[in-house]
TrEMBL record:
The keyword Transport does not apply. Signal peptide: none annotated. InterPro entries: Xyl_isomerase-like_sf, Xyl_isomerase-like_TIM-brl. Keywords: Isomerase. SUPFAM superfamilies: Xylose isomerase-like. It comes from the Bacteria. One of its GO terms (molecular function) is isomerase activity. This is Sugar phosphate isomerase/epimerase. Residues 23-243 form the Xylose isomerase-like TIM barrel domain. Gene3D superfamilies: Divalent-metal-dependent TIM barrel enzymes.
Length: 264
């Protein structure tokens, strides 16, 4: 049994409903909570300033921090400049709203349309993403708090953007398993820039693979492949599932390897 080296987190949607009741129910078991702010429109769906104040108070009471998953209904890498500007404005608004809370990172999607584009298409996407980041990053106090998530395309494609803008990386290891990307290569590419890991089960026996399930439902070899990279990782690992049963199964699987895993 190994000592757990990483901070442990999970999402704010383990129980159906609002963020705050979830934090109250599960916050005492974790070091950090991943606040899901997937939607930005209409404005009413976003956490209110009063909500953020309450979350800040809860962080003190429960001795925890937060990471915020930024909205996914916008596109900072869109081909249309107007859409990029709208995305940047929305992201700035969300980040500003959480400015009083103890947030360690903000997870950002740089979206790319499927299927994989040609080399020219990749260059165009990188240029669009660069222009989108130019609208956002100069307004930030600490660009390294922006953590670009690995999605369905090769993580190599945004390496230059990470370095150019001083950003961090959210390594979604479930996505790596689902799409067949090399986990050791991502750690070699980004090293200490990986300030957050998204961890969720993937059942590759299904087509398409089923994701965001309990870690206990994974093929054993693939589970071990992920665990090898957690043994020396000292930043935040967020169990990114959205059901209590999936969280419980994940915690049980982790508890067979690491000490200090809670039971809920």
């Amino acid at each position: 049994m190994l000592k757990r080296p990483f901070k442990l987190a999970t999402t704010s949607f383990i129980y159906p409903g609002h963020i705050i009741p979830n934090v109250k129910k599960i916050g005492a078991f974790f070091d950090e909570i991943e606040l899901l702010v997937f939607e930005s429109k209409p404005e009413a769906v976003m956490p209110r300033r009063d909500d953020v104040r309450e979350l800040t108070e809860l962080s003190r009471d429960l001795d925890l921090t937060y990471n915020v998953h930024l909205p996914t209904d916008i596109n900072l890498s869109a081909p249309d400049h107007r859409l990029r500007r709208d995305a940047a404005d929305t992201l700035k608004r969300v980040i500003e709203r959480f400015s009083i809370a103890p947030v360690t990172s903000f997870t950002l999607h740089l979206e790319m349309d499927k299927p994989m584009p040609s080399q020219d298409g990749i260059k165009a996407w990188q240029n669009n993403a660069r222009q989108g980041l130019e609208l956002l990053v100069p307004t930030l106090e600490d660009p390294a708090k922006i953590s670009v998530e690995t999605l369905w395309y090769p993580p190599d494609l945004f390496k230059d953007l990470i370095n150019e803008f001083g950003l961090s990386v959210c390594a979604d290891l479930g996505h790596h398993i689902k799409y067949g990307y090399d986990i050791p290569r991502t750690f070699e590419l980004f090293g200490p820039k990986i300030n957050l890991i998204h961890l969720h089960g993937v059942d590759t026996r299904l087509e398409p693979p089923r994701t965001h399930i309990g870690l206990d439902e994974m093929v054993p070899g693939e589970f071990r492949k992920i665990m090898d990279h957690l043994k020396h990782y000292t930043e935040t690992v967020s169990i990114e599932v959205f059901k209590l049963a999936h969280l419980q199964g994940s915690l049980e699987a982790l508890s067979k390897i690491f000490n200090g895993i809670p039971c809920i």
